[in-house]
Every structure is written in structure tokens, then in C-alpha cells.
Amino acid sequence: MQPSFQLTPSAMPIPALTQAQVPDALKHAIAFHQRGQFAQAKALYEGVIQAQPRHFQALHLLGLIAAQTGNPEAALGLIERAIEIFPGNPDFHINRGNVHRTLRHFDAALASYSNAIALKPEYAQAHCNQGVVLQELSQFQAAVDSYDRAIAFSPGLVEAHSNRGVALIELQQLDAAVASCERAIALNPAYTEAHYNRGNALLGLKQIDEAIASFDRAIAIRPTCAQAYFSRGVALHERKALEAALASYDQAIVLNPQHAKAFFTRGFVLMELGRYEASIASYDQAIAINPTYTDAHSNRAAALLALKLWEAAVASCDKAITLDPNHAQALTNRGVALHQLKQFDEAMVSYNSAIAAQPDYVQAHTNRGVALHALKQLDAAVACYDRAIAIQPDYAEAHFYKSLALLLAGDFERGWACYQWLWKTEKSAPKLRHFSQPHWSGAESLVGKTILVHSEQGLGDMIQFCRYAQLLADAGARVVLEVPPPLKGLLQCLAGVAELVNKGAQLPAFDYQSLLLSLPAAFKTSMDSIPGRQPYLHCDSRKLQEWVDRLGAKTRPRVGIVWSGSTDHAIDYNRSLPLAVLVPFLPDAFDCFSLQKEVREMDKASLVTHNKIRHFGDAIADFDDTAALCTLMDIVVSVDTSVAHLSAALGKPTWILLPYVPDWRWLLDRDDSPWYQTAKLYRQSSDGDWPGVLAEVKADLLSIATG
After folding, report:
1. What Cα–Cα distance (Å) separates residue 615 from each residue in 137, 563, 607, 636?
2. Could you report the per-residue pLDDT of 347-405, keeping only the tens digit for each?
3. Residue 565 phi/psi, 5° resolution?
4. 558-562 and 613-614 strand pairing
5. DSSP secondary-structure letter at 439?
6. Are 162 and 131 in contact, with CB atoms under 8 Å apart?
7. Helix H or strand E encompassing 478
8. Which of 288, 459, 492, 625 is most deeply buried (CB count within 10 A of its CB)?
């Protein structure tokens, strides 16, 4: 909606004109002007003014050339001189308004347009230009009124119909916006802006395919329309056609390398594609174009969080917050990064600031609850989750995190119900498969029915909760248990299971389905009714003999150790420890065996240096091998991983090393577990205090060795 100005060619000499030559010179100047030969026109206009200093027409036209050649300040002075001499020409006032608009002097522009309208009330272009400025001032209804007046005086003014559509989009009158743009298109089918604006209105109506078609039409008319490519990218993004959206943003950038918003939205798409380094580079481009682009700094921090570059994420958030101290998203992202750095109190400060800036920001309330959970302030955490839920009742993350606090506190009744929200969270919902068979709620009779039990969670969860198969069988069901392939051999003889199916294989017919972690809620499990006599798992006798032969004769007590879990686990940083920290606490009176297959790079040197630990690596093919190894141990010492669950389910003495705030299943302030009769829990007394935990383990091992 801005006028298009050109650069001035090289200057021409000013002719010395006689009074008699002025009319002819003016005529030639106007002809040059109309052909875009600005230097020649400018020289003749200046000659006219030199001959007749109060020639208001020449002053006005010379002002237009200044505007068209990128010198709006000079244009303003010349046009104002023309108006002083002859204030009654509405064209002078409208063009002065256009120059003020270019200089972003919006109030002055409106005043000039009002003057033009006062002189010529039916001046449609003045009403239309007035509407453009009112849009710039976000006075959208007033803009629509101006466009309506323009259209009333000139029904064929295409620009007014199209711009009216833009204002109606801002007013969320989207159907009316589409109609207004379509009127413009009917008047001029080749009017690019009308197709583009129609596409934006359709995008707001979620008519994605029609919006894309409209953007495509705008591009077909004007292939250099960067903004149409940009909006097309937005539409494709909403349709989740991420690669196509990326290509459209890229084309917008080719056409307009200074399109900061295209770089920004491109970065967003790259994040969704998991290409975080490329996403950061795109945000950097947006920031290079517009260093005050607060959202780009904040989203850049989110990409850094995905890469676990916590300190860099804090720095990026700080830049955003410096630009806008009330940027709720940046404050929240900063809190997340500080949380990962275990600076929980500082994280709380950031979340509090985010909430002060935006009291209804559910993510900030929820994240504040997570920080309080990490500080073991569970009641306060639940209050935060409840506040988030009050603001947005269907916010699944708040319900799920609330369940973790309730279950950790031992409130199973409320905790199990909230836990079912897991499968509506942004992270987990895409993983959930949908079957036509109904979910079993616990109320329906299972007599003579087949139920499929499936899990979309970790191996440890499968080991811990597969015990519920027996309860289903006791209720009269034929139980089909779908399992990850590494567990199939181990669970082959699980009590209560009629059929075991590898995940991904064809499923048999069934009447009901249940997620494994929905069964505690369905059975209304309380602390006193946790099922599963132990051991409820057993190792394969053939595998056991293989490992008896591999380990050789036993000469001393054996301790199996597991010091780290999968790096993919959301809070692995909290549950795993370096092998170098563990080794000094292993008494020489024991033979030590590594029960984990994978060893992290940082632990390989420790494993070589401290060769008293026997490690088997790829010889552990699956959980049958791990179960056999656990069976041959006198004690298994493990951090909170699937091996800890396996060992305890086998009925082996299992010492589990827990962080200050453990996973919900281990509860609080107890050294035993209602889930496993042979488990003993060793807890950090303060955050990160692994040496304190390991000192207790060493003392207990020594008491066994000497006892």
C-alpha cells in the first residue's frame, strides 16, 4: 500500500526561460514526467519556477518527482509551498498526505486527506488513502468506513475493495473479507493483492486448500510476489505439509532477502522437522535483518533447548527479555533452561515474571509447577497445575504433571485418573494408535471377551505393569499382550497372558483394548491392592546355563551394577551417574558385573581403567540375557532403569539408587517399595548427592561381605 518511487537519473541543467516560454516548458516537463524521464522533467520544472517562483503547479509536480525519486522530505517542502500559494486544489492535499504517509507522519497524513475531502467530498481516492492510514494506526473499523465511502463514490475502485478486505480480516469478519476481495477480483481479475488478501481471509477461515489456490493465483499473476509465497507457506504449514511450507518460505526469501518474518517462520518449520541447527541459523537471519525481533530471540532459545544447550538458551532469552521485559514466552523459555541447569529458584523467578506479564499463560503456570515438583514442594506444584487447568480445562500437560505429583505423594485415587491425560499431551498424542474397539474402563464385563493390552511407553513400564495381565485373566478375559521385541522371550510365560504379540506384528481379533498404564486406574489400584506376587518373571533355563558357563565358578559374592539409562529419557540427567563416580564405592570383596549393554563414551575409559568390572556388551542380546545375568547375582545395584524393574520382578535383592526427587513410582521418604518386595531404595538427601547415596550402598555391601 506504499507508493513505488524510483531513483533520480543524473541531473540535467536548468534552462533559463522567458515568461513566454513557461507554458510550453511546463507542457514538455509533464510529458517527460509521464514517461518517467524524471531528470528532464525536473530540470524544466525548476526552469519554470526560476521564471515564476509562485508557479504552484510546477512546485507541486516537482514535489511529486522528489517523492517518486526517494526524497520525501524535499517533496513535502515543495508541495506545502504549492498549497500556501493555492490551497484550493484537493490533489495538492492528497499528495501531501501521501508523502506524510511515506514518512509515517500518520496524523498529518489524515489531516491532509481530510483537507482534500473537505474541498472535494466525492474524492474517492482520498477516502481510500485515508483508510490505508487508519489501518496503519490499527483503527480497522474506521478504515472500513473510509473504504465504504470511497466505494460509494467510485464503485469500481479496486484498491478500496481489496484494502477493505484486509481491514475486515483484522476485525475477524472473515466471510465479509472474502466477499470484499472477490468484488475486487470481479472488477480486475489480474489484481494480485486481491487474490493474496482473499487467501489470507480464507486462511483465517481454515479453508486451507482454497487459501493455497488463492495464493497460487496471486503468484501466477505476479511471480515476484514474495508476500504471496510467504502466506502460501503459512497455509502449507497449517496443513502440516512442512517440506512444502519450507520451500514456499525459501522462495519468499529469494524474492525478498530482507523478509525477516519469512526467516522466522522458516525457523519454526525447521524446528518441527527436528532440524534444530538449521532452525537456529534461520532465526539468526531474522535477527540480523531485525535485531529487535523479540520472538525470533525467544524461538531461537527454544531451538537451543531442544539441543540441550542450556546456557546458550538462557543468553538468547535474556536478549529477548532485554528488548521486551514482559515477553512471557521468553521468560518461560528462560525458566525451562534454568530448570535444566538445576537452578530451580531462578527458574521460579522467570516463571513468576511470565505469569505477571501474562496471567493466563498456562504453560508458565504448568512449568512453575514442574519447578516446585523438583523442589519437592508437591502441594504447591499441584496448586500451580490446578491454576493452569482452571484457565484451560483441556490442557493435557497440566493434568498429566499433576498426576505425577499426586502419585509421588501416594494419592493413587486422584493420580491414576489424571495420569490418563498423558495420551493427550503434545508429545505423546502422536504416538497413540487408535483402534475401533472400545477402551476397557474397568466397568464392563470381560467374561468371554478378548482384550488387547498395549503400551506406548518404556521397557521398564512394561516390566512393572505387565503383572496386571493376571488380574484381567481373573476377570474372565482372554489377554493378548503386545510387547516390544526385546521383551517377548522374557514375557513368554507371564501368568495371565493367552497370547503374546510383537509390537508391529498383525494383531488377532479382540473385543476391548487397554493401554498398559490405564489398568491401575481401571482396577482402582490403591497402595494396599498393588498386584503381583513376586517373583512374577523368570529367566529362561537355557539362557541361565549359558551364562553360568560364561561367568565360570563363583568365588566371591556377585554384585551386578547399572549406572546409566537411555539418553533419550526426558530426565536422564537426573537419574544416571558417571561410572567414575560409582567405581570408588565398589568394595573389593565383591565380583562386579556390568548389567548394561550400552556404555556411554565418557564411561568407556573408566571401564577400561577399573578392570574389576566385567562388561559383556553385545553378548547381551536381549532381556533374556539380562534376566539370566540378574539371576546369577547376589545383589543388583541399579539406577532407575528397566534393569532395576527386571531384577526386582525376578525377586532378586535389588538396590535402587534414586535422585532427590525420584520418579513417581518410588514414592517419598521410604526405603522399600510396595511394587517390589525385594527392592531397597537409596535416596539422595539433597539434589545431586550421589556420593552420599553410594557411601550408604558401600557400607551395606561391606556389612554383607563381613557378615
Report:
1. 71, 13, 8, 14
2. 999 999 999 999 999 999 999 999 999 999 999 999 999 999 999 999 999 999 999 99
3. -110, -160
4. unpaired
5. B
6. no
7. strand 478-483
8. 625
